[in-house]
Amino acid sequence: MQANGVVYEEPSNGLENAKATLRDYISIMKWGITIANLMATFAGMWVASGGHPGLAPLLLTLVGTALVVAGGAALNNFYDRDIDQHMARTKHRAVAQGKVSPAAALAIGLSMSVVGLAVLLLFVNWQSAACAFVGLFVYSYLYTVWFKRHTTLNTVLGGVSGAMPPLIGWAAGSGGSISLAGWCLFFTFFLWQPPHFLPLAMKKTEDYRAAGIPMLPVVRGFRETKRQIVLYTAAMVPVSLMMTPLGAEGWIYFVVMAVLGIWFLYLGVKGLYIQPERDLEWANQVFRFSLIYLTALCVVCVLSVSIF
């Protein structure tokens, strides 16, 4: 198969598949990413319920979301097995190497996704299930099949799926209604995606170029990428702070996220003025801080509601 000037070969389905271990099957579900999404789901549900989500609804929401997210990851491994072979970061994935067959990855992805959606629909509410379905559809089909391979806006458009877990939690914790504060949380996560993934794309530019993926740093260069990181960060900070005026969070949240948001923006602006030879060093710094920011956001969401 050929796309964007790159020839892809189907992974071998012969003897290599016999080497697949339980760890290989687990790896295609990207449990590290799944756990991060559960953290966001928990935060959204906690805030929406005022700190009293109920144990059974909480567990069912987390189980359903975990299955959907893990299922989507397996579907991504299934479809991206061609380009994964050309990237140092992904060439050791089990499907790309032929350890797990594409058919098995597809079956696992579809099964987990359907069961997860059923759990949310039958035991939580249809609104949470709808949010999960939208996230799954955007990530597994629109992003994986179309956006990632055809447009520099792939990170931005795909960000819808990354912002769905807190909305799933919000719908579950509120009994199905999503308030303006809930949408502010959604858009905070949505706007966080580019300042998080674009620095990673800068670090892996040659990987993406080799795979024929039109990531922004590949097509438009580092200068434009850094400019867009600043723009999205600048939009994210005030949106995140709206949670307090809307009454969903206390002042501890406002102060902590204001400080972290301003520092995040400072790091972004700093990148516009550094020497080109330091771009990758700066990208690594921003990428690492983006993880700190999101983790702090989830933690302070819970703590601020709990205290007040």
Account of the 3D structure:
- This protein is mostly helical and 308 residues long.
- The chain folds into two domains: 19-176, Tetracycline Repressor, domain 2, CATH 1.10.357; 179-308.
- It is built from 15 helices and two strands.
- It has helices spanning 22-27, 31-48, 55-79, 81-84, 94-97, 102-123, 126-150, 154-162, 164-173, 180-203, 205-211, 216-219, 222-241, 251-271, 279-307; strands at residues 2-3, 6-7.
- The chain has a two-stranded antiparallel ribbon with strand order 1-2.
- Strand 1 (2-3) and strand 2 (6-7) form a beta hairpin.
- Helix 3 packs antiparallel against helix 6.
- The radius of gyration is 20 Å and the shape is flat.
- The chain starts with a strand and ends with a helix.
- Mean pLDDT is 92; it is low at 12-18.
Layout: helices, strands, pairs:
Elements: E1 2-3, E2 6-7, H1 22-27, H2 31-48, H3 55-79, H4 81-84, H5 94-97, H6 102-123, H7 126-150, H8 154-162, H9 164-173, H10 180-203, H11 205-211, H12 216-219, H13 222-241, H14 251-271, H15 279-307
Helix pairs in contact: 2-3, 2-9, 2-15, 3-6, 3-7, 3-9, 6-7, 7-8, 7-9, 8-10, 9-10, 10-13, 10-15, 13-14, 14-15
Question: What's this entry about, in short?
Answer:
This protein has 15 helices and two strands. The chain has 308 residues and is an all-alpha fold.
